[in-house]
């Protein structure tokens, strides 16, 4: 009886060791939930070897919005639309601007391959005047990690009249 268990244990051990496939060799259909979660949690960095088949790609319809000329004190809102053109889920970790006058909001859940998402930006012109150009940096599990969007235009007048 002990010999039967020993042989069974050895056979199971040999069969378990016969799986040399790595995550980068798997097709998307074969990937397990924990593999996808690992990709999402670990954004690509410059020191990593990049497998282009397993990096999300964020493709924006446009990366710059020119709001033209507005009066000081106005709030300008614009929604940048994008599509995940990669083969794995996309996760935006952060979206920020260089000043508090520009506030972006972004989807908190992952965006599946082939699906679309939006980054909404609200630009408050209070206490601003003249030509304005504000960058919005999107940090995601893409390569490269950062994507920049811009909102620009001209602010005229005095916001004390509003």
Taking pLDDT < 50 over at least 5 consecutive residues as the criterion, the unreliable ranges are 19-29
Tally the helices: what do you get? 2
Look at the structure and give the mean pLDDT.
Answer: 81
Number of strands: 8
Distance between the termini: 90 Å
Q: What Rg do the Cα atoms give?
A: 24 Å
Count of distinct structural domains: 1
**CATH homologous superfamily name?**
Immunoglobulins
Give the strand line-up of the largest sheet: 1-3-6-5
Shape: elongated
What does this structure look like?
With 162 residues, the chain is mainly β. It has one domain: Immunoglobulins (Immunoglobulin-like), CATH 2.60.40.10. Helices cover 15% and strands 38% of the residues. It contains two helices and eight strands, in the order H-H-E-E-E-E-E-E-E-E. Strand 7 and strand 8 form a beta hairpin. The longest helix is centred in the first third of the chain and has 15 residues, at 2-16. It is elongated and about 90 Å long. The N and C termini lie far apart (90 Å).
List keywords for this structure.
mainly beta; 162 residues; four-stranded mixed beta sheet; Immunoglobulin-like; four-stranded antiparallel beta sheet; 8 strands; elongated
What is shown here, in short?
The protein has 162 residues and is mostly beta strands. The chain has one domain (1-162): Immunoglobulins (Immunoglobulin-like, Sandwich), CATH 2.60.40. 15% of the residues lie in helices and 38% in strands.
Summarize the helices and strands and which ones pair or pack.
Blueprint: H1 2-16, H2 33-41, E1 58-60, E2 64-71, E3 75-84, E4 92-97, E5 102-105, E6 116-124, E7 130-140, E8 146-156
Parallel strand pairs: 2-8
Antiparallel strand pairs: 1-3, 3-6, 4-7, 5-6, 7-8
